[in-house]
Design a protein that fits this description.
- With about 130 residues, this protein is mainly beta.
- It contains 2 helices and 6 strands, in the order E-E-H-E-E-E-H-E.
- Strands 1-2-5-4-3-6 form a 6-stranded antiparallel barrel.
- A hairpin with a 5-residue loop joins strand 4 and strand 5.
- The radius of gyration is 16 Å and the shape is globular.
Length: about 130
């Protein structure tokens, strides 16, 4: 019985807003995104990205898509109004600084795409 693994691309798309970022002394950047109640199904799918390297791509209406960098899942919370608050972290070396600066202060909704390659284990089931 041999186990093989393959990867599958997981894509989570949602409409949300930039909710700030901060950089720590240890060169870790924390990015915050918030999502409306209507995006709760997409927020549930984000759980599949825990432990993965996540490429974050955003697109404002009438503008080109911008890759913000490669992040790791840090936390997800849902407030009592059903808004989702997603925290992602990354070393600053894996951030596209110009693209991140371009969305600072962006008040309009963004199309946000989270992409990760998830390794799937395929084991034989002898039932």
């Amino acid at each position: 019985m041999s186990e093989t693994s393959e990867t599958q691309e997981i894509v989570v798309k949602a409409v949300g807003q930039y909710d700030g970022h901060s950089t720590k002394k240890n060169r870790i950047l924390e990015l915050k995104l918030k999502f409306a109640y209507d995006e709760r199904v997409s927020m549930a799918r984000v759980i599949m990205l825990v432990g993965q390297h996540i490429d974050v791509i955003v697109k404002a209406a009438g503008k080109k898509a911008l890759k913000l960098g490669t992040f790791n899942f840090q936390g997800l919370s849902i407030d009592r109004d059903g808004q989702g608050h997603l925290k992602l972290t990354s070393d600053i070396d894996y951030i596209e600084h110009d693209n991140l600066v371009a969305i600072i202060g962006e008040e309009e909704l963004l199309k946000i795409k989270l992409v990760a390659e998830v390794e799937l284990e395929d084991s034989d089931n002898d039932d």
